[in-house]
Amino acid sequence: MMRVAALDEQKSLRDLAGLTRLCDEVAWCDVSTLASTNAPAVIVGLWLFEQAGSARKLIEARSEAGLTTILVPRFKTGDLRVVLRTPTSVRIKPGEYNEFQWDDDIGVSVGGQTLIESSLHKGQWGSVAGMGETVLAYRAHEAAGWTVLCTAVVTSKKFGVDVDAQRWLLHEIVKRASATAPARTTSTSEPDIRIAESFSELLSEGDELAPAVVLAVALNDGDRDVEAVANTLIRIGFELSDDDVQSTLSRMPDGPTDELEQALRQSGWGAYLRRGRRVLADGGVE
What we know:
Distance between the termini: 62 Å
Order of helices and strands: EHEHEHHEEHEEEEEEEHHHHHHH
Oligomer: single chain
Radius of gyration: 20 Å
CATH class of the largest domain: Alpha Beta
Number of strands: 12
Number of helices: 12
CATH architecture of the largest domain: 3-Layer(aba) Sandwich
Low-confidence stretches: 185-191
Largest sheet: 9 strands, mixed
Mean pLDDT: 88
CATH superfamily of the largest domain: Class I glutamine amidotransferase (GATase) domain
């Protein structure tokens, strides 16, 4: 018996058109409900690029609750490091294939249009030799739930695709993630975090720590990795805990670095931005 959950707003997408024939039961949920639903969540990867803030919040909530999230095509090309909160790049790149290897020894007749390029070695469940990964699973720590990227067209109705192979692949992903899932935490509710509407709003909320964190992100050219931000803060003369850094990052909206810098200047942090660049160029704290 295979049960999964999916976003109700994606129900009409052709990328999930085959989901109901592959599973015994599909629960269609809104975003807040999906954050705490026990069943593995199947999400079309396009959402990560179009609504990165909401996607990051949902994936993080499920991961910290020990729940499995499976991301399936369509994908856009680009780096998902920020959304997935991985320590290194997880880049989606063009790459067409008709089959791939599961665990290097089982051929799977499900193709795709994109591949994964990453230095993450643990969690490489599927690949095309010499081209890249097709199924990559990641969790930040042993108590976290799996987030699985699958670039093979596992849930769509596509002419020529082997339905039995699709069903086998989805079942294997769910089975492996479930077999290595952590013990459930006592609370699976979505964290009460509100993402600011703009960088200016975040800077005007009265949080004394937020400007420093936003400044560090700007100096890092938009990199929101907690450790990288904390290290930059130390180099420019601020000492914040990882929890404080994470608190601000979780409320930070998406947007280009130039908008972030403009908001800093409008909030009176332009001089700090210039000084920070000078300090980093000199290699240390002034």
